[in-house]
Amino acid sequence: MTGSASRPVTGARHPCLIVNPRSGGGKAGRFRIAERARAFGAQVFLIDPSRPQDLVAVARRAVEEGADLLGVAGGDGTQALVAAVAAESGLPFVVVPAGTRNHFAMDLGLDREDPSAALEALTDGVELRVDLGYAGERAFVNNVSFGAYAALVRDPAYRDDKIGTMVRILPEFLARHEGPELVVRAGPLTVDRPDAVLVSNNPYQVDDPAGLGRRAQLDSGLLGVLAARAETPAETAARLRSGPTHGLTRLATPDDVVVHADAPVVPVGLDGEAVTLPAPVRCRISPRRLRVWVPRHRPGAAPTGRRPPGWAVVRRAASLVGRARGPHTD
After folding, report:
1. Which phi and psi (to 5°) does residue 82 adopt?
2. DSSP element (H, E) containing 134
3. What is the pLDDT of residue 253?
4. Contact between residue 259 and residue 283 where contact means Cβ atoms under 8 Å apart
5. CA distance 113 to 182
6. Where are the alpha helices (DSSP H) in the chain?
7. Which helix (H) or strand (E) holds 47?
8. How many CA atoms lie within 13 A of 299 on its CB side?
9. For residue 303, how far is the Cα from the chain centroid?
10. Which tens digit of pLDDT belongs to each residue from 85-102?
C-alpha cells in the first residue's frame, strides 16, 4: 500500500479480538490465533459457527465494556462489519488475515501466509488512516458489486474457487441479462442498464476491473466505479477480447455513486458476502475514517504467490462463450 502516512503507536490496554474459526478453512485454529492474541493481552470472542450472531452488536458491547481496540481474525466481510464499529467509536482496528483471499490485508501489506504476524500490531505497530466505503448503511473495506458481479458472489462455488467461478459464470450472465435492470449515477455521469457494476473503496489498478488484484492506495478519498454492458454473447466476446477500455465505463470519483434498480431490493456482493439492500443503493466514501494498526514490519508491496489474472481471464472466457454460442437471436 502506498500513499498513507503512518505513525508509531503504543499498545492498547484493553484490546478485543473477534475470531471466526471457520474462515479460510480454519486458519484461525491452525495458526492458534486465539491463544496468541490472549498472550498479547487481548480479550477474545470466538464466533460460534453453529448459530447466527450479530457481530456489530458483539463489537459494540465490547466497546461499552471498555475495549480500546477492536480486531478481527476472519474474512473481508467480517472485517467490514467490525471496522464500521471501530470507525464510529473512533477506536483503532486490527486486521488478522484469517479468511480465504484477504484482499484488504493484502492492500495493507500484511503477511497473508502467516496471519498470526498481524498480532504484532498490538505491541509494536504503526497506525494508518484509511478510507471506508458505505453502501447504504453497510460499510465495505473492498467493494460492493451488482448485477453479474453480485451473481458471482451468490454462487455456492465462489467461496472455494473465486477465479474459476468468475470464468464460468460472468460472460454467460452478461449475455443473458439476468437480474434487475440497473442505472448508475455518479455526479454528472449516468450509465443505463449495465449488466455488471463494481464500486470499490479506492480504485483498483487499471488492468484489474474484476477486483481480484490490488489498489495502489487506500486513502485517496475516491470510489472506484466499473460498469459493463453487453447485448449478445458475440458482443461480450468482442469487447472483452479487445481490452478493458471497450464497452466499459470506468471512473474514480469523490462523489456518491447511486445504483438504481427496477425492484424494491437488489442483490449485491458486499466484500464477498451475498446480501440484499433496498434500492436505490447510495455508495459513498468516508475519507481516512478508519484507524488501522499494522505491524511495524510487514511484507508490504508484493503479494505472495501467483498474481491474480484479473481481466485477462475474463476476456479469455468470454472469447470461448462467443465462439461456442454465436450471436443471440431472441
Report:
1. -80, -30
2. strand 125-135
3. 95
4. yes
5. 39
6. 27-30, 33-39, 55-64, 76-89, 103-107, 148-154, 162-176, 233-241, 311-325
7. none
8. 18
9. 16
10. 999 999 999 999 998 878
Confidence of residue 326 (pLDDT cuts 50, 70, 90): very low
- Cα–Cα distance measured from residue 74 to residue 78, given in angstroms and rounded to the nearest whole number: 6
pLDDT score, position 313: 39
Q: Within a 13 Å sphere around the CA of 279, how many CA atoms are in the beta-carbon half?
A: 16
CB 112 within 8 A of CB 241: no
**The three grid cell numbers given for residue 325, joined into one nine-digit string:** 454460442
Using alpha carbons, list the distances in angstroms from residue 140 to 259, 267, 270, 289. 16, 15, 7, 12
Label residue 44 left, alpha or beta by phi (over 0 means left) and psi (-120 to 50 means alpha). Answer: beta
What's the gap between Cα 272 and its chain centre? 6
Confidence of residue 263 (pLDDT cuts 50, 70, 90): very high
Yes or no: say if 252 and 225 are a contact pair by the CB < 8 Å rule: yes
pTM score? 0.81
* 31-53 pLDDT per residue, tens: 999 999 999 999 999 998 888 88
Residue 104 has φ and ψ, to the nearest 5°, of -60, -45
Q: Where on the phi/psi map is residue 133: left (φ > 0), alpha (ψ -120 to 50), or beta?
A: beta
* Whole-angstrom distance, CA of residue 244 vs CA of residue 209: 8
At 271-319, the pLDDT tens digits run 988 899 999 999 999 999 999 999 998 886 444 333 333 444 344 433 4
The cell for 279 is: 434500492
Residue from 35, 87, 153 nearest 288 by CA: 87
Quote the pLDDT of residue 298. Answer: 86
Q: Any idea which residue has 480486531 for its cell? A: 71
Bridge partners, 138 (sequence order): 135
Could you give the percent of the chain with pLDDT greater than 70? 72
- DSSP code of residue 273: E
Residue 245 in grid coordinates: 477500455
Three-state DSSP at 57 gives helix
Q: How far apart are CA 218 and CA 142, in angstroms?
A: 9
